[in-house]
Amino acid sequence: xxxxxxxxxxxxxxxxxxxxxxxxxxxxxxxxxxxxxxxxxxxxxxxxxxxxxxxxxxxxxxxxxxxxxxxxxxxxxxxxxxxxxxxxxxxxxxxxxxxxxxxxxxxxxxxxxxxxxxxxxxxxxxxxxxxxxxxxxxxxxxxxxxxxxxxxxxxxxxxxxxxxxxxxxxxxxxxxxxxxxxxxx
Length: 185
Ligand SMILES: [Zn+2]
What we know:
Blueprint: E1 3-5, E2 12-14, E3 17-20, H1 31-43, E4 50-53, E5 60-63, E6 75-77, E7 80-82, E8 88-90, E9 93-95, H2 97-108, H3 117-150, H4 152-184
Antiparallel strand pairs: 1-2, 1-5, 2-3, 4-5, 6-7, 8-9
Helix pairs in contact: 1-2, 3-4
The structure holds zinc ion.
């Protein structure tokens, strides 16, 4: 029964069951270096063998029980493909493990990890919606106040339709203008 864990997002599986879903935590370095560090630690014997890519984050998972063979796979980096092993094949040629590790660290440790897109996207969506929602609420309450103050009959007979049409178009135009303004910021 394989017991494996993702050192990056902490997903944990035992046999067929998921002990921890993981997926929320992102590595502080770019994915190619995060993957390499897992491979490198396993090759150094610091962890159990590497098993499969993590379902939640795609980075390598490590076996917590038993002693099997590691299953490494090529890492697609911004500089080209790196094939982990003894020796490791880098875009700049075949290198002994230690040198390949130095090469990976030199190339990728200073690049900041990409921010979480989904989180930023959600924030941005709220940021756009709030002013539009506030404005539409204000229009709604103003209309309600007018209906109560002037009387529904008068509104129905005389100015109901044009009033609603003008307010409707105005609300739409202002909503769009607000949307454009917040988008350009
Ligand atoms: Zn993971």
